[in-house]
Amino acid sequence: RDLGLRKFELTDEEWDIAGQLRDILKILKDATLFFSRSTPNLATVIPAMDLLEDKLTSYSRDHKYLPAIRAAVHLAKKTLNRYYELTDTSAVYRIAMILHPRHKLSYFKNAGWEDEWVETA
Question: What is the mean pLDDT of residues 62-78?
């Protein structure tokens, strides 16, 4: 019997879009689970945001993704950068990084921060 559901069936193009979205949303899901699973600390915020920035930049430049997907990734990057800039309003993020035995100033230098930014940190 026909339930009239054929009109809701996804086209091949729509399946492609869904697959691309799944790939891109996975990095955001992983970050959410990371911060939800254990006790987050301030020293992990900046490295996590840097990782997200790198991944989103890569996705936005990868032409295997449809233009609409790349445009959406660009908007996600803008949102991430808005929140990243908020870390500048509080020194505690940088202090936590510098005091963390694994990071210290080397994280900022290895991440390619400008010398002036490292000095400010």
Answer: 95
